[in-house]
Amino acid sequence: MKENSTKREAQLLGALARDPSKAPIGVVAGNAYPQRGESTRVLGYPIGNGINNTDWFRAKYREAKRKAAAMNPVVSASITGRGMILQAKFYSYFRYWLFGLIMPSSVRKLIESDARHFIWAAAPDLRGDEDGTRTAVAPKIALLPSHLTSLSQARWNIGLPTC
User: Fold this and answer.
1) What are the residue ranges spanned by the domains of the chain?
2) Does pTM surpass 0.85?
3) N or C: which terminal CB in the chain sees fewer CB atoms within 10 Å?
4) How far is the C-alpha of 53 from the C-alpha of 48, rounded, in Å?
């Protein structure tokens, strides 16, 4: 099978990033290497020089929230059922990225506020165009031990490195 050279990506690292004039010619189409702050993807992960991890995770968060907002209503679901939906349809979206990237604490807090709202609101409605979701439930109630609420997802971030 012949390679599609127009889809080839390369990233200048180390000495080549410091002096792009020494970059090899003909590796990528038009010798157009990403500039500082731009990224390429390797297995979906962004790599590059000077990329903003917070902006990248915030974009992934908004994408996941839009998908969660489009789900069927869960008003009639029990708290345990909502927890299972939350695990399968919201948290799972971020798990892959957490194997290779450190999630910024600002994005983690947005995810947690949406999760609390989804679990505890009488009629949860996640709006895909806003950051975080405020709910009328006191935070201490939302983080009860799992044996009291039948939820183990309330503390999904234990052990996650954050920046």
Assistant:
1) 10-47, 53-155
2) no
3) N
4) 11
